[in-house]
Here is the input.
Amino acid sequence: MNIFKVENVSKVFGKGEAKVVALDNISLEIEEGEFIAIIGPSGSGKSTLLHIMAGLEKPTSGDIYFYGKNMNEMSKKELTILRREKIGIIYQFYNLIPNLNVEENILLPIEFDRQKVDKEKLKNIMKFLNIENRKTHLPNELSGGQQQKVAIGRALMINPKIILADEPTGNLDTKSSNEIINLLKEANKKLKQTIIIITHNLEIAKLADRIIKIEDGKINLN
Amino acid sequence: MKIETRLSLNNLRSNIKRTIFTIISIALCTFLILTTLIIISSIRNGITESTNIQYNDYHFIIKNINSDEFNKIKDKEYIDKIYIQENNLETLKELSNSDDPYKNTNSINIYIKYKNVNETYKNSTDIVQTLDYSLIDAETNCKFNDKLLTVYGLMGANLSYADSTHTNIIYKNVLNLSYVINIMIVLILLVFSILFIIILYNAFLVSINERKQEYAILNSVGGTEGQILKMIFCEATIMAIIGIIIGVILSYFSSNIILQMLNNILISTTFNFKLVINAKYLFLAFAIIIFNIYISAIIPSINASSTTVIENLRNNKQIKNKKVHTLNNIPIEARLALINLKRNKNKYKVITILLVICMTAFLSVSTYINYEKATANLVTNYDVDAELRLDLASNIDYKKILNSYSQKIETIEYKKMGIYVLVEPTDALITNNNVTTYSNNNKSIQIVLIGLEDKIYNDYINEINADYGDYIIYNNIMIGEEKDEISYMYTHAFNTNNLDFSIIDNSLNNTEYRIIDDINGKYVLTDTLLEGFKEINNEYHVPTIFVNLNTFYKIAKSVDDYTLENKSSLPTWMSTDMKEPICIKVKCDNIIEFSNYIEDIKEKQNINIYTDYYSLENQEKIIYIEILQLLLRIVIITIILIGIISAINIINASLCERKQEFKVLSSLGATKENINKILVYECIYMFLKAILISIVLSIPILYIIIKNIENIIILNKLLIPWGSIAIFIIGLFIISICVTLCSTRVIKEDKE
Here is the structure.
C-alpha cells in the first residue's frame, strides 16, 4: 500500500531574480515497509521534499497524498496531529528539548496526544537504542550519538507509519553514524518500519532498499 | 500534570533570570496601578469624611424661611436631615424626625442635607419651586455649601428661569468636576496600562523569541499551536500570580507610607487620610492588570506562531541587509557597534524607547515642579497672613470673634480710605498711573490714606527719621498690566517732598473737580515700607500715605462733612468708598485653619467681613506642590525602575543571543576588552539617540508647561533643573553600561 504518493510537486522560493526552484515537478510513491535513501548534492531539494512530506511546508504546486488523503487539504492542526501520530521525524541536529531529560523527550509526542504512557514500550525502545542507563540525563549531558538515539526513540515511540530522517548521521562520527544506521536498519527489518533517509554518504545509501537521486529539484534516479 | 504545564514550569526554571525579571516587572506594574487606585480611593474617602462632619454636612441653605414654608418642604423624601438655626447667632440644631408640623413664629434658617449629594441642584430646584420663590428670593435667601459640594465635584450652579414664561426657576449645574476627575483617572490608568503593556510585551517577546526554535521542535513532533499557546499562557499565569502577589504586598505597605507622608504634609489642615481599599477600585485594578498581562503575552505568541516551523527550526535571524555608512577612521569596535545597531534596529528599538520614556518623564516632571515652586515663592512677599475689613456701621464684635479663635494670633488695627488729591506743583508727579490731567493743567492722583495707631506710627517715623505729624508717602507704586498677568515693575509717583495736596471730588466728569479740603503738612517721601504692610508692594498701583489716627480722623471728617452736604449729587460708589472701615492685619500660625474659622463665622452669623488671606494661596500652593512632588516622584521612580528592569532583561537576552557571535569574534582574535568596547559603543550610540529623541519630545511638553506658568508669573529665566537632569542621565548611562558589562559574563560561563 502507498504511504505517500507525490504527484507533480514543485516548490519555488522567492520571487523575481531571487527565485529558486527547489523542487521541479516531482512524482514518486512510497510503499509500506520500504527503506529509501534520498541522495543528491547540496541544494538539490532533498530536505525540501522531506519537509513537504512531513507537512512542515506546503508545495507551490502539485499534490501529496498520505494514505490516499491529500495533505494540501489538511489544516495546520491536522498536519501537526499527523506528525504526532503517524510521521516520525529525525533531524541532523537532533532538535531535542534542552530542558527535558531523555525519557521526557521520548514521550513528548505521546503526551501531546494525551495518550497513556506505555512504560513497557518505553523500556523496550530505550533498551533497543541502548540508552536505558541515560534516561534521566539532559541532552547536554549526552554525546551526539546518544542524542540522535533519543531523537530516534522519540520517533519510534509513536509507532509511526513512516520515519523521515534528514541526514541523521550528518553531525556524527563514523562509529556513531554506523550505530545509528544499524538501528534504523533494524527498525525497518524487525519492526517493519518504513524509513526515508536523506544522506550524502553513498555507503549508507547502499544499505537502503531503494535510492532516489535528486538533482536540481528533479529526480534523476529512482 | 499535563505536558504543557510541565514544559512551562521547566522553562520558567531553566530561564530563571528571565523569569525573575518578568515577575519583577509585573510586580512593579501592579504596584503602580494598584497604588494609584488605593491612594485615590483613600484621598477621596478622607476628603469626604473630613467635610462630612455633623453640622457641617449640609448641602443647601435657606435663610429667613417661615414655619408654613418650612412645613411644605421638611418632609420631602430626598432630604436626609435638616439643621435649624432659630436665631442668626445660635448654633445649629438637628430637626428630629417628626411628622408634626414645625411651629415657630419667627423666621428661621434651615440647612438641608440630601440623601444623594449628586442630586443637590435637582432637589434644590424642586424646593425653590415648591416654595414658589422668585429669582430674587432664591438669590437672596438660598445658598449652597460650596465647600462641601466641591469635594463631590459639584462646582456651582446658575439660577435661571426654566422657560420663557418666567414662572419657574431652576438651578443649572455649571460643571461636574467629579466627572472630569473620573476622566482624568481613566486617562492616568490608560497611560499606565500602555506602559505596562509595552514593558511586559517586550519581556514576553524576549522570552518567546529565545524559544522559537524550541516551539518549532514541539510543533514538528506534534504539539499544536493551541497547545503551545497554552504553554505560554501557563507561564504567563504563573509569573502573573507571583508578580501580582508581590505587587499587592508592595502596594499595601507603600500606600500606607505614602498616606502617612501626605498626612505629614497636610498636618496644618483638617485632612487625615486612612488607607481605604474600595472594592470597586480593587476589582478595576485587577481587571486592568490581568488584561494587560494577557494582552502582552498573546501578541508575541501569536506572532511567533505565525512564522513557519522550518524558519524557526533553522533559527533564521531576521537581519536586514542594510547598507551602513560608517566612518573609516573610527575604531573597529565602534564600527561593529554601529553596524549591529543599524541592522538590528527592531531589537534595540525597545531599549531606546524605554530610555526615552525615562528621560522625557524625568525632564518634564522635574521642570514642572521647579516652575510650580517658583509660582509659590511669588506669593510670599507678605509679612502678615491676612487682613480683615469690617464696615464701621456693622457693629460686629470683631474683638470677640478674634479672641474666640483657639490659636494664638497677632493683630494690627488701622484705618484706611481711598481719596483723590490735587497735586501741586504739577511736575511733582512723575507717573501717569491713575493720574487725571485737567483743562487748567492741574493733576490729580488717587491715593490710599492709612491711619496708624500712635505706637506703630512712631515706629515708622523713627525708622525713616520723620517727625510726628508728618505725612509719610510710600513712594513706590506698582505698574504693569492687571488682570491675569502680574508684572513686578515699580516706579516712583513723586519726585519731591515739597508737595501740596487738596482732597477733591472728581465725580463730576473728567474735566472738572471740586475741592473738599486741603491737606496741609510736611510730606516725607520714602522707599521704606512699614513692617506689616508689605502687601502694598503686590497690590497697590497708587501711592500710599501713612498718617497718625488724629490726622486720619480730621481728613475723614472733612470728607464725611462734604459727603453729607452734597449727598444727593454724589454717585453711590463715592459715598460708600469714603467710609472708613476697620482694618485688622492678622499674623497666625495656620492660615488655613484661621481662614476656615472666619469663613465659618461669616456664614453662620451672616456677617460681612471682607477678607484677604495673603498667605493662604502660598500655603495651599506649598502644600499642593509638596503633594505633587511626592506623588510624581513615586510615579517617576516606579517608571524608572520598571524601565531599568526591562532594559536589563532585554540587554541580557540580546547578549545571550549573541554568544555565538562573540565566540566567533574571540576565535578571530578579539579580546574580552575588544568585545566590551563594542558593547560600550553600542550603549553610547543608543544613549545619544535616546537623548536626542527625548529632547525633541520634551520641547513641546516644556513649552506647554512654561506657557501655562506664564499666566501666573513672567520669569526672565528658564527654570529647567539642568543639574538634576544631567545627574539622572549620567546615572542611567552608568547603570546601562554596568548591566551590559555584567551580562557579558554569560560568554565566559558557556563551556562549548
